[in-house]
Specification:
Largest sheet: none
Number of strands: 0
Helix content: over 70%
Shape: elongated
Order of helices and strands: HHHHHHHH
Number of domains: 2
Number of helices: 8
Length: 241
C-alpha cells in the first residue's frame, strides 16, 4: 500500500475516533437544558447512541472511500494494457484497407473475377473477427461495440455480395456498382471504427497524464549525472530570474 493511501486511511480512522469520543460530551452539552435535572444516565446513554450512529456513518463512509481508492488504483493499472491493445487494433485494422479498385474492369468476365477477389478479401477480413473481438474486450465496452458493429457490416457485405455473384444474367455495370458501393461502405466502417479507437486512446492517455507519476519512478530515471547537471542548470536559471 502506498504512503499516500495509508495516510488517507489513518486520517479517516482518526476522524472516526474523534467523532466517537466527542459525541457523548457534545450530546450532554446540547441536551442538558432540555432534560430534567438528575438525568445524567439518560444523557450519557443518548450520547452513546448518537456516538454509535455517527461512528457507524463515518466508518461506512471510510469503507466506501477506501473502496473507491482501490477501484481507481486498479483501473489505473489496466490503462497501459488498454492503450497497447488500442495501438495494436489500429495497426491491424489498417490492413483491412483495400489496395485495389475491384470495381474497374474492361469486360463482364473480368468484372466477375474482380467481384470474386473482392469477396475473398471480405471473407478474409471477416475470419479475423475472433482475434479482434478478444483484443477489443480487453479495452472497454465502446471499443468492443465498435469492433462488433464493424464485423456486422462486413458480414452484411459478404452476404449481399455472395447473393449477387450467384445470380444469373447480372450485367457488368450492376456488378461494378455493387462492388463500388460495398467498397465505400467498408471504408466508412473503417473510418468510424478507427475514430472510436483514437477517441478511447486519447481518453486513456489524458487520464494517465493527469495522474501523478510515482516519485520512485522519476528518481530512477533522474539518477544520472547527465540529467542531474541539466536539472541543476535549470534550477540556477530559475533562481537568477
Amino acid at each position: 500500500m502506498s504512503k499516500n493511501l495509508m495516510g488517507k486511511y489513518l486520517l479517516l480512522l482518526l476522524l472516526v475516533l474523534v467523532v466517537s469520543v466527542l459525541s457523548a460530551p457534545l450530546t450532554n452539552h446540547f441536551l442538558n437544558d432540555y432534560l430534567p435535572k438528575g438525568q445524567d444516565d439518560w444523557i450519557g446513554f443518548s450520547g452513546n447512541i448518537v456516538g454509535g450512529i455517527l461512528g457507524g456513518i463515518c466508518t461506512l463512509l471510510g469503507v466506501a472511500y477506501a473502496f473507491s481508492l482501490e477501484k481507481n488504483k486498479a483501473f489505473k493499472e489496466t490503462i497501459p494494457n488498454k492503450i497497447v491493445n488500442l495501438y495494436s487494433l489500429k495497426q491491424e485494422i489498417n490492413s483491412h484497407r483495400l489496395s485495389k479498385d475491384y470495381s474497374s474492369a474492361p469486360n463482364w468476365q473480368k468484372t466477375v473475377e474482380n467481384m470474386q477477389l473482392f469477396l475473398d478479401r471480405i471473407e478474409e477480413f471477416y475470419n479475423s473477427n475472433q482475434e479482434f473481438l478478444e483484443k477489443a474486450s480487453q479495452v472497454d465496452s465502446d471499443t468492443f461495440a465498435a469492433v462488433e458493429r464493424y464485423y456486422y457490416g462486413i458480414k452484411t457485405i459478404k452476404l449481399k455480395t455472395t447473393a449477387i455473384i450467384n445470380e444469373s444474367g447480372i450485367s457488368a455495370e450492376v456488378l461494378q456498382k455493387e462492388i463500388s458501393e460495398a467498397t465505400k461502405f467498408q471504408l466508412n466502417l473503417l473510418e468510424i471504427m478507427i475514430g472510436i479507437f483514437e477517441e478511447r486512446q486519447d481518453y486513456y492517455l489524458e487520464y494517465l497524464h493527469n495522474q501523478k507519476t510515482p516519485k520512485h519512478v522519476i528518481e530512477k530515471f533522474n539518477n544520472h549525472d547527465y540529467i542531474r547537471s541539466i536539472l541543476s542548470e535549470n534550477n540556477e536559471d530559475s533562481s537568477d530570474s
